[in-house]
Amino acid sequence: MHRYEEPRYAELIEEIFYGPTASFRWNELGLTEDDELRAFRRERMSAKPTLRIAARKGDELVGWCYAFADRPDALYMASSAVLRGHRRRGLYRAMAKVVVDLAREAGFHFVHSNHVCTNNPILLAKLAMGFYVRGLTLSPDMGNLLSLEYPLTEVRKRALLARSGLVPMTPTMASMITESLQGPGDV
């Protein structure tokens, strides 16, 4: 979809992401924003390919997934949620599958996302789909986040698993790494 309907989407964002331990409202903590810079950033972001998936029950928006290209080869799943009364029915997994399928079709190399470390339902759903843990980061906005990746090409998957130590690195991969370390005339 092009846009989620307002004001309902803003109400859902408020409900899902701004609870007692969720994201900070920086303006309430004294951070002021330059409106011109904000407009500039918004314009720059709108030029990137974006994807909006909606889950509906009748006319009611009950879940969404918003993703955008943050690199030429990557699609970032930035915001996803399913309302409480509609969870545990496969909606999130279905939306994530659509994102992965469309990203593959568009030629991206991987899909990635960040999640609050205690959001077990989402983490379990994504791990069951084939996402891999690729790291842990600390976000001033959301706290500790687990970074996940779904490789869309076999070579990306192999490299991710080799870098993690789960599978041996192929001789070709190893030579590509070591070749860059050797200078002219080094053997």
Record the SSE blueprint:
Elements: H1 8-17, H2 35-46, E1 50-57, E2 60-71, E3 74-82, H3 91-105, E4 110-116, H4 120-129, E5 132-139, E6 143-151, H5 154-164, H6 171-181
Parallel strand pairs: 3-4
Antiparallel strand pairs: 1-2, 2-3, 4-6, 5-6
Helix pairs in contact: 3-4
List keywords for this structure.
alpha+beta; 6 helices; globular
Annotation field: number of helices: 6
* Overall helicity: 25-40%
Shape: globular
Strands ordered across the widest β-sheet: 1-2-3-4-6-5
Largest sheet: 6 strands, mixed
Number of strands: 6
Helix-strand makeup class: alpha+beta
Written as H for each helix and E for each strand, in order along the chain, the element string is HHEEEHEHEEHH
Distance between the termini: 56 Å
Would you identify the regions where 5 or more consecutive residues have pLDDT less than 50?
none
Rg to the nearest angstrom? 20 Å
- Report the sheet-strand fraction: 25-35%
Mean pLDDT: 82
In summary, what is this structure?
The protein is α+β, with helices and mostly antiparallel strands and 187 residues long. It is built from six helices and six strands.
Give a verbal description of the structure.
Helix 3 crosses helix 4. Helix content is 37%, strand content 28%. The chain starts with 7 loop residues before the first helix and ends in a 6-residue tail after the last helix. The protein has a 6-stranded mixed β-sheet with strand order 1-2-3-4-6-5, sandwiched between helices. The longest helix is centred in the middle third of the chain and has 15 residues, at 91-105. By secondary structure, it is of the alpha+beta class.
